[in-house]
């Protein structure tokens, strides 16, 4: 694994190199890490580079130019952007070019975790054509920033509904969607709510998280043939809810999030999938499930979610794991979309007897929506 870090980290390069080398040794990782003040060497055609970490100001070249050039020339290289705490607004200009965002000062553990997650992802989706296809897409959906901010906020046990409401209020479109869902027949219980903090209380933080993630993941102005974004988002919310119910226990939230994102790959141009009328689009492109999983991995979502999205149409590939996240998402998405459930897989993992009950749960959920 060849990692090139562009920039001097405000003069910290020497100390940080020692820290990173020590961390690599502690983890038993034989990675080659190089530091350079300019990206020119890393962009050379013969340069050995698997991961490029670039400061927003990369020497004489702006990070936008560096990462864009690397995407064109070598789309398989993982591109990580290094930010100051006050550079969020500027970072929005280069999100299409970067796979991951890390904060300055660079933390050795965070870098190792980010790179290892990409290694795991590529082992899962070891497909050179897929890597190239996703890397060449001009405008990937950006990481769901508000969802990430909300997740970080909720890690604090002292967080209250007022703080969550204030965060949601920063996005008027999202706040309107939260209120709309809160006042739907499914949640309203006959009482109209007009305050975002009251809506957070009524919906609950987990539902809020999923709604935020769905809104950001399925956002976009570009029309894609065969894709009805609004219908997809509605289907995603139902699949999410059902997947969490089917799995239950401590893994329910993983299943709910994976169910929410199972179809997100259809929003990437050039992917292969069947439309509602059975027409197969882009038959020579990468399958939407694997393309979507690759995107989620680049966003940094947990591997069980990435694996479930990649395999939700072919759960038998995960049968050695038993009936877990991928199985729950497969069943939930099939029942919500009224497509065939893989009964052979359910027999193999000893869950076929539960299918009638699950069908009933799915029918009730669709009727209630």
From TrEMBL:
Domain of life: Bacteria
Chain ranges of the HDOD domain: 140-315
Pfam families from the UniProt entry: HDOD (PF08668)
Domain Response regulatory positions: 2-119
Name of protein: HDOD domain-containing protein
């Amino acid at each position: 694994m060849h990692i090139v870090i562009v920039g001097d980290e405000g003069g910290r390069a020497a100390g940080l190199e020692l820290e990173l080398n020590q961390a690599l040794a502690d983890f038993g990782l034989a990675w080659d890490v190089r530091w350079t003040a300019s990206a020119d060497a890393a962009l050379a055609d013969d340069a050995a580079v698997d991961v490029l970490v670039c400061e927003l100001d990369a020497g004489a070249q702006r990070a936008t130019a560096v990462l864009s050039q690397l995407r064109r020339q070598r789309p398989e290289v993982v591109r990580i952007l290094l930010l100051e705490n006050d550079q969020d607004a500027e970072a929005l200009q280069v999100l299409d070019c970067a796979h991951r965002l890390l904060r300055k000062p660079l933390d050795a553990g965070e870098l190792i975790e980010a790179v290892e997650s990409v290694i795991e992802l590529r082992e899962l989706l070891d497909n050179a054509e897929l890597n190239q296809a996703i890397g060449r897409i001009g405008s990937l959906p950006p990481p769901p920033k508000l969802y990430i901010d909300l997740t970080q906020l909720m890690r604090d046990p002292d967080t209250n509904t007022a703080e969550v409401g204030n965060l949601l209020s920063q996005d008027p479109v999202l706040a309107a969607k939260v209120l709309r869902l809160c006042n739907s027949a499914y949640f309203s219980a006959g009482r109209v709510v007009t305050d975002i903090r009251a809506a957070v209380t009524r919906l609950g933080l987990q539902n809020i998280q999923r709604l935020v993630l769905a809104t950001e993941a399925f956002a976009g102005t570009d029309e894609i043939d065969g894709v009805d974004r609004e219908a997809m988002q509605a289907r995603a919310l139902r699949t999410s809810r059902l997947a969490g119910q089917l799995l239950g226990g401590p893994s329910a939230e993983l299943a709910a999030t994976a169910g929410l994102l199972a179809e997100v790959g259809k929003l990437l141009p050039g992917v292969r999938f069947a439309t509602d009328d059975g027409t197969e689009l882009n038959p020579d492109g990468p399958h939407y499930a694997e393309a979507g999983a690759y995107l989620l991995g680049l966003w940094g979502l947990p591997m069980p979610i990435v694996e479930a999205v990649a395999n939700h149409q072919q759960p038998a590939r995960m049968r050695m794991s038993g009936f877990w996240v991928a199985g729950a998402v497969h069943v939930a998405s099939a029942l919500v979309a009224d497509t065939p459930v893989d009964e052979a897989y359910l027999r193999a993992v000893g869950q076929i007897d539960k299918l009638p009950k699950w069908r009933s749960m799915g029918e009730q959920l669709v009727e209630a929506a």
